[in-house]
Amino acid sequence: MLKGLDVQLVPQLLLALAEMGHGDSVAIVDRNFPAHSSGKRVVELPQSTVHSALDAVLSVLPIDRFGDAGVVHMLTDEGAESPATSEARAVWELAEGGAVVEAGQRRMDGFYESAAQAYVTVRTGETLPYACYLIRKGTL
After folding, report:
1. Which residue in the list 22, 36, 51, 73 is annotated as catalytic?
2. SS3 annotation, the chain
3. To which CATH superfamily is domain 22-136 assigned?
4. pTM: predicted TM-score of the whole model, two decimal places
């Protein structure tokens, strides 16, 4: 056990986050996301929500603030935000001390392809639909 770390930062997740370089992405997804078929490395956090997993990851990982969106969130098939996104936005804005450049993307219009390129996928037990996020690692 390490002091001061969120218990959701299990060893395999900490290792992956530490190995990531500037511009690499972590996917934090709901329980319905096809993580094992679309991700190279998957960490299962079935007792976590996306919000608690985001909070844990963003306690150690800076969001990229250069160039394109540092956060990409999945949109519904109709193009609306997930019911989870407003709370998720509050988590990443609090972690970064303000607004973060973000973009929404429909799952079939590129989100799945982008998520497949993530360095690590964190699948949570989140029950809210379309609660999937890509966070691009920044620098300190």
Report:
1. 22
2. CCCCCCCCCCHHHHHHHHHCCCCCEEEEECCCCCHHHHCCCEEEECCCCHHHHHHHHHCCCCECCCCCCCEEEEECCCCCECCCHHHHHHHHHHHHCCCCCEEEEEHHHCHHHHHHCCCEEEEECCCCCCCCEEEEECCC
3. RbsD-like domain (3.40.1650.10)
4. 0.95
